[in-house]
């Protein structure tokens, strides 16, 4: 039993750290490179992890891969647990549940940038205490996808959310996820481009690629209230320093940074509030 648990822990750790999709054959080679393991023992441990819904087979380009499963509740930050609809989740302490149905939109928790974004939002909510300072707080989630970031922020204490996306499928799915979480009256999802929304926000989140984040930097910096924050992800590690430089030009400091599988996320606030 101890031997099987050792194999299972090694498999989970290898999948968690893998930068790219990995086949079961390549995963087996990786585990065998760490310590001697019989093929039938590896396959038995892998089968057990799939049955426990900790791992799942995914299919792309005619090949099957082993990836982390999100068909069960998964804790992606200090507080946020993402779960599919219809499951009972026992929450402890300050934990919150965000229900996300699997769809075609980005943002189900299975990508590092989503997890990093949620962790960045958790950090600024905890450190800056945004919801404690102002009675009516607002987040703008640019490129909202499934709506997961806006929904997480609402459950962490933000009063109202606006999610923007140019994909009709994403808009429909984000609205449905808001309904499932009983937050439809607090989460407005729109196809209006962010640059056309002339409002001030306590928090802006954007899980997008570097060129788009760079283009939107002026807008984001100009539409965050004093003592608010910007959380951005979708950044490769070699792009983070340039984005920090760009936002420093708008008098923003980076107060949090984290990486996972060559992806980075940043949390930024206006520098004078830290002086």
Condensed summary:
With 275 residues, the protein is of the alpha/beta class. Helix content is 37%, strand content 27%.
Secondary structure layout plus pairing:
Layout lengths: L1 H16 L6 H9 L6 H13 L3 E6 L2 E6 L5 E2 L4 E4 L12 E4 L12 H16 L2 H4 L4 E5 L5 H8 L4 E5 L3 H13 L6 E4 L10 E7 L2 H13 L1 E13 L3 H9 L3 E9 L2 E8 L5
Parallel strand pairs: 4-5, 6-7, 6-9, 7-8, 9-10
Antiparallel strand pairs: 1-2, 3-4, 10-12, 11-12
List keywords for this structure.
single chain, 9 helices, globular
Please characterize this protein's 3D structure.
It contains 9 helices and 12 strands. The strands form 3 sheets. It has a 7-stranded mixed sheet, with helices on both faces. α1 crosses α2, α1 packs across α3 and α4 packs parallel to α6. The longest helix has 16 residues. The termini are far apart. The model has no long low-confidence stretch (mean pLDDT 90).
């Amino acid at each position: 039993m101890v031997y099987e648990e050792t194999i299972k822990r090694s498999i989970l750790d290898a999948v968690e750290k893998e930068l790219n999709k990995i086949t079961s054959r390549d995963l087996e080679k990786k585990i065998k490179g760490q310590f001697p393991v019989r093929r039938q023992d590896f396959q038995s441990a892998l089968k057990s992890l799939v049955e426990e819904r900790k791992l799942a087979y995914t299919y792309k380009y005619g090949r099957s891969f082993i990836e982390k499963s999100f068909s069960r509740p998964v804790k992606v930050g200090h507080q946020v647990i993402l779960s599919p609809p219809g499951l009972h989740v026992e929450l402890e302490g300050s934990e919150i549940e965000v229900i996300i149905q699997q769809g075609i939109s980005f943002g189900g928790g299975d990508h590092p940038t989503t997890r990093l974004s949620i962790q960045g939002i958790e950090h600024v909510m905890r450190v800056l205490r945004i919801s404690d300072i102002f009675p009516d707080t607002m987040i703008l989630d640019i490129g909202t996808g499934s709506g997961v970031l806006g929904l997480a922020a609402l459950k962490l204490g933000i009063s109202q959310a606006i999610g923007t996306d140019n994909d009709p499928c994403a808009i429909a799915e984000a609205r449905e996820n808001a309904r499932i979480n009983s937050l439809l009256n607090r989460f407005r999802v729109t196809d209006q481009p962010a640059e056309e929304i002339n409002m001030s926000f306590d928090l802006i989140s954007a899980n997008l690629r570097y060129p788009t984040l760079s283009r939107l930097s002026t807008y984001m910096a100009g539409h965050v209230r004093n003592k608010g924050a910007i959380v951005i992800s979708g950044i490769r590690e070699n792009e983070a320093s340039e984005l920090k430089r760009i936002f420093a030009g708008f008098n923003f400091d980076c107060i949090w940074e984290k990486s996972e599988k060559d992806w980075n996320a940043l949390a930024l606030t206006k520098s004078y509030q830290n002086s």
